[in-house]
């Protein structure tokens, strides 16, 4: 995996980015889309309609998935973290190579990661409830 502390990647193709983006105001999503949804891998969501549908699914289930969208052999599951005002401020994630992070493993880890995000959010003063 090519992840490095301090590195950057587009929000629309990472699980942590999408976990944050899903709970940002509409204006923020519009800005991201306007900047362009350049494909990073063959699996990157680069269509506005598909991205918006993915963000709606993320809000409904409480966690996001990066299925090889940022790195070709990596899957990631992430959940938002909310502060005491209820605003999304960060995200936490679990990543692995596709050989170990299977689709079934992603489905199993998603709710666990979402619960961890809610516990951290509550420590920060959020009163957010599970999706």
Short description:
This is IclR-ED domain-containing protein. This protein is of the alpha+beta class and 131 residues long.
Q: Compute the number of strand runs.
A: 3
CATH uppermost class: Alpha Beta
Structural class: alpha+beta
- Whole-number count of domains: 1
How helix-rich are the residues, as a percent range? 25-40%
Organism: Kitasatospora aureofaciens (Streptomyces aureofaciens)
Protein name: IclR-ED domain-containing protein
GO biological process, one term: negative regulation of DNA-templated transcription
InterPro entries: GAF-like_dom_sf, HTH_MetabolicPath_Reg, Tscrpt_reg_IclR_C
Description:
Residues 1-126 form the IclR-ED domain. It comes from Kitasatospora aureofaciens (Streptomyces aureofaciens). GO terms for molecular function: DNA binding; DNA-binding transcription factor activity. This is IclR-ED domain-containing protein. The chain is of the alpha+beta class and 131 residues long. It has a single domain, classed as Beta-Lactamase, CATH 3.30.450.40. Helices cover 40% and strands 18% of the residues. The protein has four helices and three strands, in the order αααβββα. Strands 1-2-3 form a three-stranded antiparallel β-sheet.
